[in-house]
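Need a sequence for this fold. Nothing fancy.
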């Protein structure tokens, strides 16, 4: 107990010293003398050197202490010189920062024991809290919030008094509240104020802090903590619902992108295309080839690689789709079972062809900088790649709707969908419409592969993960109806994400499938049935 008290006292004294000296300019002589102590191969001298360097205010202090923690601080007992091995392999002299060619033969890493590691951690924490970069100060304050180490209170108070960054000031305030909440000699008013601050934070870490409070608190403090805990739990439950809804919308956008091409071919041609997933796979591999070409020849264009891959994937997948329709599908119209078997066999052929060309292993497709990272809204995290895929999906949907409504091909496709024989009698070349429709559906599947390459593994089995879900979306929404596909995709996506936490991923999908089967029993044509003499017959 006495040893623990003495260690905490030394840490407290070190914190006070750090605040007092942090604003004082460093003197070269004392700093060099302190650095030289690391070469004595003595634990007590290393502890003294750590404290002196950390409180020196010298810009080399953080690299030296960080190197000491990572085993990159090298000392030569003969010359009393100390060196820092940087992460890039360069070596600098610790006292001056000058780059050196190498270290003497007798030099070795400065040793640490458990007590010294605690001293080093405290020194690094104090240095980071006083870092000139606001982001590092916020990160350090959040670390103190989790540990609520009361020896950091003097540093937090000193940093809070001169803090100008709004985000860092809030982080310091929260860290101070966490420390005071667990500080034995904190007053009741301080603890109540701390609970209010932690309640305002309202995340899982705040909840863990309040639930970890000991039961020997004053009655008012215990009641305030219980009320804050209940409020945070209700708030987190609400944000969890919002997070699940976002996950469902994100999944729905993926399903819509994968199913929208199938909705066109299935609706216009009545073809059960089991090779549709392979068109998605082809689009993903086109993206891989584009990125590999850019990496090796034009690395500066990597951020626009996806924009370049979208039209190429549409052309490649669409051309393959037209070739498939002209060579296989057109001989099987009106024979759904033969069409299903033929396209299923074709999907196996395409998968094996890709395995032969690219190998069976996953291929790396990178995220451009504008699709990397995430941002937070309240207590939910939204990744940029999912957000961009949602925007891309809605853009593709809008362009496709405009094409069907305002172009001659769209008019012919709608005519063939509603009554093929009447359209043929009016002079529409239905065979040409079939080929172009199949190519359009395959091309859209190809650009779906471009988007899916950012969130899934690019492999020969990529399309198999989405073909069944795509058929469920099309049948549930209404065969051939794009608005039905949109509503069906987002409905199934959201329902799936709300069922997964309750029933699990596998049982959730089974439940969705059962619900769709029951729904189709009542509405065989789906949510939005097409109207026309042919489809109503």
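Here you go.
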């Amino acid at each position: 107990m006495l040893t623990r008290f003495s260690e905490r006292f030394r840490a407290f004294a070190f914190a006070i010293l750090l605040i007092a000296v942090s604003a004082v300019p460093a003197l070269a002589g004392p700093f060099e003398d302190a650095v030289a102590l690391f070469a004595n191969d003595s634990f007590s001298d290393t502890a003294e050197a750590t404290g002196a360097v950390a409180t020196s205010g010298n810009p080399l202090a953080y690299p030296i202490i960080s190197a000491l923690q990572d085993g990159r601080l090298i000392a030569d007992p003969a010359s009393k010189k100390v060196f820092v091995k940087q992460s890039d392999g360069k070596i600098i002299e610790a006292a001056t920062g000058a780059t050196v060619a190498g270290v003497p033969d007798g030099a070795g890493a400065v040793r640490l024991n458990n007590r010294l590691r605690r001293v080093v951690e405290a020194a690094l924490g104090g240095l980071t809290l006083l870092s000139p970069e606001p982001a590092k100060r916020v990160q350090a304050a959040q670390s103190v919030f989790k540990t609520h180490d009361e020896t950091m209170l003097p540093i937090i108070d000193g940093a809070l008094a001169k803090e100008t960054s709004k985000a860092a000031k809030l982080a310091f305030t929260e860290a101070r509240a966490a420390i005071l909440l667990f500080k034995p000699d904190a007053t009741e008013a301080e603890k109540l104020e701390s609970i209010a601050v932690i309640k305002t934070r309202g995340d899982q870490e705040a909840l863990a802090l309040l639930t970890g409070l000991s039961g020997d608190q004053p009655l008012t403090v215990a009641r305030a903590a219980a009320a804050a805990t209940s409020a945070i739990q209700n708030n987190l439950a609400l944000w969890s619902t919002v997070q699940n809804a976002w996950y469902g919308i994100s999944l729905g956008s993926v399903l819509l992108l994968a199913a929208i091409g199938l909705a066109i071919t299935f609706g216009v041609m009545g073809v059960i295309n089991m090779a549709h997933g392979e068109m998605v796979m082809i689009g993903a591999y086109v993206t891989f080839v584009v990125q590999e070409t850019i990496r090796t020849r034009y690395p500066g264009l990597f951020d626009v690689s996806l924009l370049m891959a979208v039209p190429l994937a549409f052309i490649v997948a669409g051309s393959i789709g037209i070739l498939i329709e002209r060579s296989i599908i057109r001989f099987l119209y009106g024979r759904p079972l033969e069409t299903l078997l033929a396209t299923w066999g074709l999907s196996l052929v395409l998968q094996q062809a890709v395995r032969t060309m690219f190998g069976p292993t996953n291929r790396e497709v990178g995220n451009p900088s504008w699709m990397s990272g995430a941002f937070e809204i309240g207590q939910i995290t939204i990744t940029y790649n999912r957000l961009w895929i949602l925007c891309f999906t809605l853009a593709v949907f809008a362009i496709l709707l405009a094409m069907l409504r305002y172009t001659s091909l769209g008019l012919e496709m709608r005519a063939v969908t509603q009554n093929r024989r009447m359209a043929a009698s009016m002079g529409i070349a239905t065979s040409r419409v079939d080929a172009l429709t199949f190519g359009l559906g395959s091309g859209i599947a190809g650009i779906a592969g471009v988007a899916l390459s950012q969130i899934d593994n690019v492999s020969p089995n990529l399309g198999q993960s989405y073909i069944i879900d795509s058929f469920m979306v099309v049948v549930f929404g209404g065969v051939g109806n794009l608005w039905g596909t949109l509503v069906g995709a987002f409905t199934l996506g959201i329902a799936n994400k709300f069922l997964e936490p309750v029933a699990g991923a596998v049982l959730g999908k089974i439940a969705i499938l059962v619900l769709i089967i029951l729904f189709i029993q009542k509405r065989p044509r789906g949510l939005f049935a097409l109207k026309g003499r042919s489809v109503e017959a």
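For context: Residues 1-28, 532-537 have pLDDT under 50 and may be disordered.
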